[in-house]
Amino acid sequence: MTKLAVKIAYMGEGFHGSQRQPGLRTVESEILRNLITVYGSDNIDFSLKLSSRTDRGVNALGNVAMFETGTKDPDALLRSLNSVSRGIFYRSYAKVPENFKPRYAYLRHYRYIMPAKGIDADRAEKCASLFLGEHDFSRFCKYDGKPTLNNVVSSEIKIEDDFLIYDCSARFFLWQQVRRMASAIAMVGMNRADFDEVLRALNGENIHMGTLRGDTLTLMDVVYNDVDFRKPVKTMYERKLNEEIYRNKIRDTFFASL
């Protein structure tokens, strides 16, 4: 059997998150439906696994799905999958060895977009820098029993077209971690919280700074050492993310979530 790691893109709307759930449409269930349709059988063990879990509403331009393909030509397979897919675009692939585990990525890159109006960019940038390095993010995640020590390797903002773009990367992120870090950045940037509160929360004090909505969060890419993906295809989702989410949906409703 040939194992493929495939870069996928999707809008989070219309999916109840990424993981399979009985009776609900999820990213995994849609991929499985596509594979069954293309192969014409539901008796095949595709060994489907995703690199990164995304919550309901969260988008992706570079999540990774791994599955077994038999003898099918990968280029033809991706074309076939795209022809039957409803809401997922199969962008590029890499053949991976039998022992490849998609969750063991070198780096994950997330992006959160929010209106820049009312936010002091200098304060927001300084707040973003506080998350760099290794910290206990127990106050910046929804605890699910996993260790909360995490090393954030990049955390920076920029302003484009009246929007604040927050980019961060780490080997992994905890549940809701990016949305909670982005909320702290917004709160500090609007002078509704101070840097000291963020530092105290990182030191374990019981301070919570909110959780932003998920539908303007995007998993931009998942990076592996020594895995050479074919050059990704530009997708309709990139245009849709820019036009619908970043320009229209959040302009009037974002601040109500704080």
SSE order: EHEEHEEHEEEHHEH
Using the CA coordinates, give the radius of gyration: 19 Å
- Cα(first) to Cα(last) distance is 49 Å
**CATH superfamily placement of the largest domain:** Pseudouridine synthase I, catalytic domain, C-terminal subdomain
Oligomer: single chain
**Count of helical regions:** 6
| Record field, number of beta strands | 9
Text of the CATH class of the largest domain: Alpha Beta
The CATH topology of the largest domain, please? Alpha-Beta Plaits
Mean pLDDT: 90
Proportion in β-strands = 25-35%
Any idea what the shape is? Answer: elongated
Which segments are poorly predicted (pLDDT under 50) over 5 or more consecutive residues?
252-258
Examine the secondary-structure arrangement and name the CATH architecture of the largest domain. Answer: 2-Layer Sandwich
Q: Portion of residues in helices?
A: 25-40%
Largest sheet: 9 strands, mixed
Total discrete domains: 2
Quick tags:
258 residues; 2 domains; nine-stranded mixed β-sheet; Alpha-Beta Plaits; alpha+beta
What topology emerges from the helices and strands here?
Blueprint: E1 3-12, H1 27-39, E2 49-50, E3 57-68, H2 74-84, E4 88-96, E5 107-115, H3 121-130, E6 133-136, E7 149-160, E8 163-170, H4 177-189, H5 195-202, E9 217-223, H6 236-253
Question: Can you describe this structure in just a few lines?
Answer:
The protein has helices at 27-39, 74-84, 121-130, 177-189, 195-202, 236-253, and strands at 3-12, 49-50, 57-68, 88-96, 107-115, 133-136, 149-160, 163-170, 217-223. The chain is an alpha+beta fold.
